């Protein structure tokens, strides 16, 4: 955050070059899809809303009588000095994780450095596979997250990708039944919209891991990091003043991490995957994990890269989502406003990636999904009138959009009973079941 060329400090000190390779997609892709549940369940009990648009879908949670209605957007940044620069962000949505019909995974990865796009794509693919292979994921998700992140970090170090000065942050949300488990490494963010006292309030599901946090600052200092802004490193400001305000008011020159006797790596975050050089001064891949129950007051959640939150607060993002019934419209509005604010403050923008997930009542009643697996369920995919069927875990990976989407009036969504984000949730809704 706060750097003219992103998370690294290459713009002013040439610590390393931001010229990433293309982040190629992997896994199956679909424009529209709807999880329709276990074949043992009567088809007429399962909702199949008709969805349109480039990237929108639903995922049922039978055990909690919920439906996740989501959309994704990834927008390449505007870099006037590097017009061919690739989008270093990527994301993944995997439904039916681990073969369970009511377990769904949403994650955003924000790469940085010369090989940031390759790092982000590598971590996206390997992290979800590590989680899928972990038999303890639903019994102890915090432990499974930690194991998966650390293993993926080691694999990235050992891969052919040079991650000495490149890496990625990651923010991931696993919804399992009525439980939400969030893992964060870096400064991307997850935030929920919660109905409280007649309005929608932002509830942060992660904490940015930067030197602005006292605990993170002290941890990296103990590991030998110098914590200084660019102006302090260059001698413009007093390096002995260890105070930089906060993330909302850093004047575009946040505190960064430097090796004791060098002008690198200059990272504005304290945790990441990759960045092997920065590991020597305390940058770690260990996630912070939050687990919570989904309540009737939880209307939606957002998973996004820090390109969204550089100039928008969590509450501002939640306020925007609350205006739209259709998550596609919310993604479009947030991307447009983020883009506008970047250009208002700087002559470039960061890459912007957003996943918006509305939480609604499915209206089908609760179904015991403990023994359900995807070999007994199907995913219907609608592609311009052509019906397709898949019987395995379904991925939607990074899908870059060349231009910001045009905002349109969203249609009324009558496919589920749970109220949209801008209306109070139904008081009859109950999710007091274990995921």
TrEMBL record:
Biased composition (Basic and acidic residues): 381-401
Entry EC number(s): 3.1.3.16
All copies of domain PPM-type phosphatase, residue ranges: 69-359
Chain positions covered by the region annotation Disordered: 238-257, 375-435
Keywords carried by this UniProt record: Hydrolase, Magnesium, Manganese, Metal-binding, Protein phosphatase
CDD domains per the UniProt record, alphabetical: PP2Cc
Required cofactor(s): Mg(2+); Mn(2+)
Any one GO molecular-function label of the UniProt entry: protein serine/threonine phosphatase activity
A Pfam family matched in the record: PP2C
Record's catalysed reaction(s): O-phospho-L-seryl-[protein] + H2O = L-seryl-[protein] + phosphate; O-phospho-L-threonyl-[protein] + H2O = L-threonyl-[protein] + phosphate
Keyword Coiled coil annotated: no
Gene3D superfamilies associated with the record: PPM-type phosphatase domain
InterPro entries named in the record: PP2C (IPR015655), PP2C_BS (IPR000222), PPM-type-like_dom_sf (IPR036457), PPM-type_phosphatase-like_dom (IPR001932)
Classification via PANTHER family: PROTEIN PHOSPHATASE
Family under the similarity heading: Belongs to the PP2C family.
Protein name per its UniProtKB record: protein-serine/threonine phosphatase
Protein's organism: Dioscorea cayennensis subsp. rotundata
Upper taxonomic lineage: Eukaryota, Viridiplantae, Streptophyta, Embryophyta, Tracheophyta
